[in-house]
Amino acid sequence: MSVTIDIAGLPHERIVFAPSPLAELCMALHALSQPTHHPRLASWTAATSAALDPCLADRLLEAEFMWRSSFSDVFMAFAGVPGGTGLPAATLAEELDVLDRMDDERFVAAALEHCWLALYDQGGYPSPLRDAGARSRALEAAAARGPRQLEFSLRLLDDTAAVRAWLRRLLEDCEEAFFAETWKRVEPGQSADARHKGELLRRKGLPAALKDVSAALAVDEGLTTITADKMLHGTTTATDHRIGDGLVFVPTDFGWPHLLVLHAPGWRPVVHYPLGTPGPASSPGSVELLQRRMEALAHPMRMMLCRSLARAPYTTGELATVHGITAPEVSRHLSVLKKAGLMHTRRQGRYAQHQLDLGAVARIGSDFIEGVLR
């Protein structure tokens, strides 16, 4: 499972690293709505939530599906408005101006993105502003989130202009309440990181720059396809002339463990990458490796073997005797554990001793959480 970005023929100068205040506001709102996703931000989320004006907190609940369980592309408007620069602006006000230039159909589709997640990278789904079936589906999905979300979606479909103005005021009020101070604190570090990665791209090439962004990103030898290791399938191109060639990498202080890839048709692809991710020594493996490890531990006999292997080194023969199965059966189970990277083997004379890698097993829980949230 992965999201791929076709970059064949894309000049390096069209790959840009730049911070986005509007995208960062989205992640800050997400952290406030889902603090358990972001234990590193516990002090910030607690203090900010406690200081929020009750009226503002109440208004945020109406549209929270735009940032709570999925991340609406309206917060990366720079990537979806034809004729623009295709790059983030320096201030929130400027980015909101770009959002104002987005046409209603694209705005509504992005605002109600949670209704179309299964069709996200396919495009071509009808507009709920024009199609009765799409409208019904959008309202049904909103109703499942709650009465306030249903009311907001009804207003969005029936009076799009008024809701767009309401949303802009809401985001401006968030800036005044907490985000202006937050952005002033994090923007210098994000700009410095963007400059560093841009220089790394220029001097050492794309593979080195991607490695510095995230262990979940890779590029093929021909430098034609970037792959983001995520628990979903998707594909996009950085050479779509409808929106202009280019690929944008946007840093975020509030995003970890999420690594987001905007890959909607007709939008410039964007990789929203978290700063301060764990180093290579503690980075989780691929989604495929995580799946292999969980499947390896799901078998009852392998669970029993792990009980022994966690306590001390054992030979194949010893394990066969302890668990009442044949040595070839033990070998087959050990092979699965070894391919999943969960076991160490060392030679003692003519005997091979096997032992569970407790560190690798202990990381499965955190790797699973980061993998599904990535």
Structural overview:
50% of the residues lie in helices and 12% in strands. It has helices at residues 21-33, 42-51, 54-62, 92-100, 104-111, 132-145, 147-158, 160-204, 206-213, 287-298, 300-309, 316-323, 327-339, 358-373, and strands at 2-6, 15-17, 217-219, 225-229, 234-237, 247-252, 260-262, 270-274, 343-348, 351-356. The strands form 3 sheets. Strands 3-4-1-5 form a 4-stranded mixed β-sheet, with helices on one face. Strands 2-6-8-7 form a 4-stranded mixed β-sheet. The chain has a two-stranded antiparallel ribbon with strand order 9-10. Helix 6 packs antiparallel against helix 7 (147-158), helix 8 (160-204) packs across helix 9 and helix 12 (316-323) packs across helix 13 (327-339). It is globular, with a radius of gyration of 24 Å. 36% of the residues are buried.
Q: How would you sum up this structure in a few lines?
A:
This protein is α/β, with parallel strands linked by helices and 374 residues long.
N-to-C SSE string, H for helix and E for strand: EEHHHHHHHHHEEEEEEHHHHEEH
**Beginning-to-end CA distance, first to last residue:** 12 Å
User: Which regions have little confidence, pLDDT < 50, spanning 5+ residues?
Assistant: 278-282
Mean pLDDT: 88
